[in-house]
Amino acid sequence: MNLECDLILVPNFNYIWDEMIFQERPRVEKSIAEAVQSYPGGSILFVDDFLDYGSPESVKKALFRLNEKEVLFRLAHGIYLFPKRDPELGNLFPSTDDIAKAIARRDKAHILPTGVHALNKLGLSTQVPMKVVYLTDGTARTVTVGKRTIAFRRTSPKNLLMQGEISSLVIQALKTLGQNQINEETLKRILELLQKEKKEHIVHDAKLSPAWIYKILMNALK
Q1: Which residue has the higher pLDDT, 170 or 17?
Q2: 118 and 55, same domain (yes or no)
Q3: pLDDT digits (tens, 9 = 90+) for 135-187
Q4: Each residue of 33-79: pLDDT tens digit?
Q5: Residues 6+ apart with CB under 8 A from 130
Q6: Same domain, yes or no, for 61 and 134?
Q7: How far is CA 104 from CA 63, 91, 111, 173, in A?
Q8: Does residue 4 lie within any of the structural domains?
Q9: How many CB atoms lie within 10 A of CB 144?
Q10: Residues 128 and 197 placed together within one structural domain of the fold
């Protein structure tokens, strides 16, 4: 009795997939390199901005190569800079504030500087923190940018309802200092800063602050 067996060739789908990805990468890199030219210098970009050009893996590889070629600069994991170039200073890099705001825009979240960062922004401290902290209604996370760290901490919605840029920073700065750590010089400087804020913003934001901060903000209106 003779048995005949047909040999069935099964394609190596892993090989085919790898080959497709390999062929896709140069095209994706070229497309992204052309696309970034439409952005203004200084733009902060994310992997998600380029997913229309290829698979996530191909986009990540393309961004990695563009970083090596200095078309883009990697700021943090998944975050890139299309640099603004100054004839004398060379490539200009964004501040932590710029990066934090870009992340918030991407995540459709609200953020508010707090801690030493709020004091520094108001000129109440010369200390430049290596770790800047923002209150957010978005995802709590920590982003490392070189030697700097940006921390997003979840907070209650009430803390993000403030309307004034200066008054909201003042409230966070006062909370950081504490009621018993405010001297006359600091208080004078805070009242001077609040003169630049809209009165309606001060009134609105004061109502959202602790009683002792409320008094300070309302004194600025006198």
Answers
A1: 170
A2: no
A3: 999 999 999 999 999 999 999 888 899 999 999 999 999 999 999 999 999 99
A4: 999 999 999 999 999 999 999 999 999 999 999 999 999 999 999 99
A5: 147, 148, 149
A6: no
A7: 21, 24, 7, 21
A8: no
A9: 12
A10: yes
**Considering Cα of 189, then 120, then 161, then 211, what sign does the dihedral take?**
negative
> Are 55 and 21 spatial neighbours (Cβ–Cβ below 8 Å)?
yes
The answer on 176 and 146 residing in a single domain is: yes
Residue 198 token pair: 């809209």
Dump the DSSP string for the chain: -----PPPPPP-HHHHHHHHHHHHHHHHHHHHHHHGGGSPTTEEEEGGGGGGGS-HHHHHHHHHHHHHTTSSEEEETTEEEE-EEETTTEEE---HHHHHHHHHHHHT--EEEEHHHHHHHTTS-----SEEEEEESS--EEEEETTEEEEEEE--GGGG----HHHHHHHHHHHHH-GGG--HHHHHHHHHHHTTS-HHHHHHHHTTS-HHHHHHHHHTT-
Using alpha carbons, list the distances in angstroms from residue 65 to 3, 29, 80, 157: 56, 8, 12, 41
Q: Which two tokens stand for residue 134?
A: 């923002």
In this predicted model, what pLDDT tens digit does every residue of 97-135 receive, in sequence order?
A: 999 999 999 999 999 999 999 999 999 998 888 999 999
Q: CA 169 to CA 97: how far, in whole Å?
A: 13
At 11, list the tokens. Answer: 């394609």
Find the domain containing 30 and state its range: 19-86
Instruction: Please report the pLDDT score of residue 14 as a whole number.
Output: 52
